Amino acid sequence: MPEVYNWQLGREMAYPYDARFPEWQFAFVFNINRCIACQTCTMACKSTWTFSKGQEHMWWNNVETKPYGGYPQYWDVKGLELLESVNPGGQTWSPSKADAKSPYGRYDGMTIFEGAAKRPTEAGDRALGYIPTDEEWRHPNIHEDSATAYEGGPFGLSKSGANLPEHKTWFFYLQRLCNHCSYPACLAACPRNAIYKRPEDGIVLIDQERCRGYRKCVAACPYKKSMFRPTTRVSEKCIACYPRVEGKDPLGGGAPMETRCMSACVGKIRMQGLVKMNRETGDWADDPKNPLTFLVKVAKVALPLYPQFGTEPNGYYIPPRWAPRAYLHQMFGPGVDAAIAAYTAPSRELLAVLQLFRATQKMIFRFEIEPGKKVFERDIAGKKWEMFNDTVIAFDHKGTEIVRTTVEEPVIVRSQAHQNSI
């Protein structure tokens, strides 16, 4: 099996195909701290792409309540159990010098591809996986708002559960769609070569004419975002709303636009775009003025979901501040503590970039910051922190300004009372 470099793991790993990288990579960042689980994103996707017969249980985008929720149910627990079964106690990280090739250290455990090679099956599966049962597909957000129990105060709730950094009783919302991975397990597993990664933007698609419904992709994808449609007997998945990414939406005027789930977000937790790739190394190009590159590579406030699976997902998350760190380390890797610290006391530049979340439906390719006056200061973790009312300006793929906003939200006071004013 060929060796490819996975920068999220800080090492080379086995993958069934030689490394091939797109010119641009479709990627996104979710700020878990802001999500209210309104499911507007879920319904925006549902009403656009999966409203037909045979798609009743297809939720390409879903928001699930952790730690108990999942769609399909137990998808993450079962994936972690598979890794543990082939490498007991070995899913660990070694610290290393932080650089572009290993920003989170080195993962010493096995990936789903290496695990499959260690425990080959009669079918010759290229990735550890399983087919979820029909019962596990029944509920897109089972255990919604179910918090962890704690033997403390009344009703089993902690008397000090609201204290940071970790709540005793907690839950959080996890937003999920296809990660359009750099090393997709669905692509690796397909015996028909029906799954491919677009060279222009890295979006992973299924060729419906080549697919024969073997469901190898369903079994292999550790995030379970490839789904089987019984009426057509083929698999389907998130297509990243690629007509909008291509600039074909009439509202965009030819500019690449965010997907339906992203643009519908009420909580302003989502940012999506395209990052320039270094096609020789497979890493993101050095472009700190791209907001996604800044959040992931510079500020390091956004982390990949279950990087230990080895697919190098292109979906990143700002971890929740109140959840137990051990749980978050398992979910997002060893960069959690630094990411939460960066978000809790954001740098001047990071605070400005955070204002761009959902500020426009067009994809942002570059940002600039105009300095403003200091408006607030306080101590955070024993250190002085200052807030400046800077103006952040976003530009599209052609360098045209598409939005500008300030860190401090303006207050508008009407000069004259209207007849219907309260």
CATH fold group of the largest domain:
Alpha-Beta Plaits
User: Structural class of the secondary elements?
Assistant: alpha+beta
Number of domains: 2
How many E-type strands? Answer: 19
**CATH classification, class level of the largest domain:** Alpha Beta
Task: Kindly estimate the percentage of residues that lie in beta strands according to DSSP.
Answer: 15-25%
Please list the strands of the largest sheet in the order they lie side by side: 12-3-14-13
What would you note in describing this structure?
This protein is α+β, with helices and mostly antiparallel strands and 422 residues long. The chain has two domains: 3-344, Alpha-Beta Plaits, CATH 3.30.70; 348-406, no CATH class. 19% of the residues lie in helices and 20% in strands. It has helices at 40-49, 75-86, 112-118, 185-189, 216-220, 242-245, 260-263, 291-298, 325-332, 336-344, 348-354; strands at 3-6, 11-14, 24-31, 62-66, 93-94, 106-107, 172-176, 195-197, 204-206, 226-229, 234-237, 270-276, 303-304, 315-318, 366-370, 374-380, 383-388, 391-395, 401-406. The strands form eight sheets. Strands 12-3-14-13 form a four-stranded mixed sheet. Strands 15-18-19 form a three-stranded antiparallel sheet, covered by helices on one side. The protein has a two-stranded antiparallel ribbon with strand order 1-2. Strand 10 and strand 11 (234-237) form a beta hairpin. Helix 2 (75-86) crosses helix 3. The longest helix has 12 residues, at 75-86. It is globular and about 70 Å long. It starts with a strand and ends in a 16-residue tail after the last strand.
